[in-house]
Write a structure and sequence with these properties.
Length: 198
């Protein structure tokens, strides 16, 4: 397979997210922001996943002229009226996963309704055209942390149908049911349909 014209830049500095994307996307050559020499913060000023995914993808597309993938994602908790949502990465005021997760647990200490979902929106700029792919994963927020895998809120999120959290389940299982996995599979199918690369 000649992937030279099928390179794709991942517009993210989030290591957990990048790891998962790399596990699941094998039909194109992936480049990181450091591969393309982009060292600034990418703006995420909006209140929807779609708008934030778009501005991240556009920022890197303007910088590189290459195909770009941006994932904007987060966890939406019913008891917290959909928060942390688009603010998931900095819910506590810092980008510290542990502080963010602890704030969700303390804000939910009296909550009976523990339902939540993860959502991911991928904006793919491919051959200059914008495409969106979405995925959602329903589950519940536990009362304490379990497991050491995954990232972000995974130690407190048990997906529907499982007793274990995303931090306890093997990565292949998480990828097979997660919000990101669902969005990525739609994107991979799209890339395959336009390039023929499996
Ligand atoms: P973004 O960079 O604004 O898209 O931030 C995404 C944030 O949402 C991450 O920093 C995590 O806090 C949270 N998040 C998104 N997807 C996941 C996941 O699969 N596991 C755990 N946390 C996630």
């Amino acid at each position: 397979m000649d992937t030279s014209e099928h390179r794709l830049v991942i517009a993210s500095n989030n290591k957990g997210k990048i790891n998962e994307l790399r596990q699941m996307i094998t039909n194109v050559e992936l480049l990181s922001l450091s591969d393309v020499g982009f060292t600034q913060e990418i703006p995420e000023p909006f209140q929807t996943f779609e708008e934030n995914a778009l501005i991240k993808a556009e920022t890197i597309h303007k910088y590189t002229g290459l195909n770009v993938l941006a994932d904007d994602s987060g966890i939406c908790v019913s008891y917290l009226e959909g928060k942390p949502g688009v603010d998931s990465a900095h819910y506590s005021g810092s980008r510290d996963d542990e502080a963010n997760l602890q704030l969700v647990l303390s804000n939910m200490k009296d909550a009976e309704d523990r339902s939540a979902y993860y959502k991911a929106v991928i904006c793919l700029i491919w051959d200059g055209e914008m495409n969106y792919f979405e995925g959602k994963c329903d589950g519940t927020i536990l009362r304490e942390k379990h497991g050491t895998g995954g990232f972000g809120y995974d130690p407190i999120f048990a997906p529907e149908g499982y007793q274990q959290t995303f931090a306890e389940l093997p990565p292949e299982v998480k990828n097979s049911i997660s919000h990101r996995g669902k969005a990525v599979r739609k994107m991979v199918d799209f890339i395959q349909s336009v390039t023929g690369n499996k």
